[in-house]
Design goal:
The chain is built from 14 helices and twelve strands. The protein has two domains: 2-187, Rossmann fold, CATH 3.40.50; 199-297. The longest helix has 16 residues, at 61-76. Helix content is 43%, strand content 13%. By secondary structure, the chain is of the alpha/beta class. The protein is globular, with a radius of gyration of 20 Å. Helix 1 (9-18) links the parallel strand 1 (2-6) and strand 2 (22-26).
Length: 331
C-alpha cells in the first residue's frame, strides 16, 4: 500500500479517488507566511506554526494543534507503507513543503529507500482523473542528491538572516528543477530597496492604480502576474489589510476589513465588493519616491528571519542582491 503526501485537500481528494489503495496525507501549511525558525524537532515547529496561524485568526489554536499533530503522526507512520509517493507542484507554496518533507525523510533512512516523487509543472488541484494519470507517469525514485539539496535548502530557509537562502542561487539546484524559481520568488517577498514593498504588495498597488478597485477582482489580477501562482486568498487578504493599516495606509476604502474567516456573510460581501483606492502616500511609495518602511511598523517573519524596522533585510531586484539592515537605501 502506498502513502501519498501532497499539498492540500483538493489535490489530496483527487488523488484519493484516482489512485486505488493509497492513503493520502495532505500537507497543510503556508510556509511562506510566518515564522519558520530552527527548532529541535518537527513537533516544536508544528506548535509554533499553529500559534502563528491561530494569532492570524485562521483557526482555533486547539484545532490547529490537533491538525498538525495528526499530520505529524501520519508522517511518522511512513515506514509501515510499501512506498511513499510525494506529489508536489512547481510553485513556491509546494516547493517549501517539499524541502521540509524531504529534509524529514533525510533524517529517516529507513523510510528514504521507499520514497518516490512526482514533480508537476502544473497545478494538481486543476487536474482531472485523466490528466492526473498522465502526471503519475512522472514518478521517479528520490535520489540522494535531491535529499541532500532539500536538507541544505530547508536549513537555509530557517536561518535568522536570508543570506544562506540567497546563496542557494549560486548552487546547482537542478536535482529539484523548480527550486531555483521558488528561491528567487521568496526573496522577492522581502522589502524592495526602491519602495520598501514586497513584490505582492507592489502588484496589489499597481493593480489598484490600473483601475481594479474591488478586492474580489484584485486577487485574480495579482495572481495573474505570477509565473507560478502560489498564494491563497487568506494570505492575500492579509497583505491587502496590511496595506490599509494605520498609521500611514497606502490604500483606503476597505472599511469592512480586516478579513477574518468567521466574518458574517454580509460583511464578507462588503469586504469583497469594497471600492479601494490609493492614498497620496500609496502613490508616492509605488512610484519609489517614498519608502514604505518609513511609514509602516514592520514586524513579520520571512522563514527564520524576523523582519522589523530596525532589522530590515531588503531585496535589490535589479541586481539580484540582498541589502542588509543599516545599509544605505538604493534608488
Amino acid at each position: 500500500m502506498d502513502l501519498i503526501i501532497t499539498n492540500g485537500d483538493v489535490a489530496g481528494e483527487l488523488l484519493r479517488k484516482t489512485v486505488q489503495g493509497a492513503e493520502v496525507l495532505p500537507w497543510r501549511d503556508v510556509l511562506h507566511d510566518g515564522p519558520v525558525p530552527e527548532t529541535q524537532d518537527l513537533a516544536e515547529l508544528s506548535r509554533l506554526r499553529a500559534d502563528f496561524l491561530a494569532a492570524k485568526g485562521w483557526g482555533s489554536r486547539d484545532a490547529l494543534e490537533d491538525a498538525f499533530a495528526a499530520r505529524d503522526r501520519g508522517l511518522a507512520q511512513a515506514s509501515v507503507f510499501d512506498r511513499v509517493v510525494l506529489w508536489f507542484e512547481h510553485d513556491l507554496y509546494d516547493q517549501l513543503q517539499l524541502i521540509q518533507i524531504l529534509d524529514w525523510f533525510g533524517r529517516e533512512p529507513k523510510a528514504e529507500a521507499q520514497l518516490y516523487l512526482v514533480q508537476a509543472d502544473d497545478f494538481l488541484g486543476r487536474q482531472t482523473p485523466e490528466t492526473i494519470g498522465k502526471l503519475a507517469e512522472l514518478e521517479e525514485p528520490v535520489f540522494d542528491q535531491q535529499v541532500a539539496l532539500a536538507k541544505r535548502a530547508w536549513e537555509a530557509l530557517r536561518q535568522p538572516t536570508p543570506e544562506a537562502w540567497h546563496a542557494l542561487l549560486d548552487e546547482d539546484l537542478s536535482p529539484l528543477p523548480f527550486l531555483k524559481s521558488a528561491v528567487r520568488r521568496l526573496l522577492e517577498e522581502l522589502p524592495s530597496t526602491k519602495s520598501g514593498l514586497s513584490r505582492t504588495e507592489r502588484e496589489i498597488l499597481k493593480a489598484i492604480r490600473s483601475g481594479i478597485a474591488r478586492p474580489r477582482d484584485l486577487f485574480g489580477a495579482v495572481q495573474a502576474q505570477e509565473e507560478a501562482a502560489f498564494m491563497g486568498d487568506w494570505s492575500f487578504w492579509d497583505r491587502l489589510d496590511g496595506l490599509a493599516s494605520e498609521p500611514s495606509p497606502l490604500l483606503d476604502g476597505l472599511d469592512a476589513g480586516p478579513f477574518r474567516p468567521e466574518m458574517k456573510q454580509e460583511d464578507w460581501q462588503s469586504y469583497l465588493d469594497a471600492e479601494v483606492r490609493l492614498t497620496v502616500i500609496g502613490n508616492e511609495v509605488l512610484a519609489g519616491r517614498e519608502d514604505y518602511a518609513r511609514h509602516a511598523t514592520i514586524d513579520r517573519w520571512w522563514g527564520g528571519t524576523h523582519l522589523t524596522n530596525d532589522a530590515l533585510w531588503r531585496w535589490d531586484a535589479a541586481n539580484g542582491a540582498l541589502v542588509p539592515p543599516g545599509a544605505e537605501r538604493l534608488n
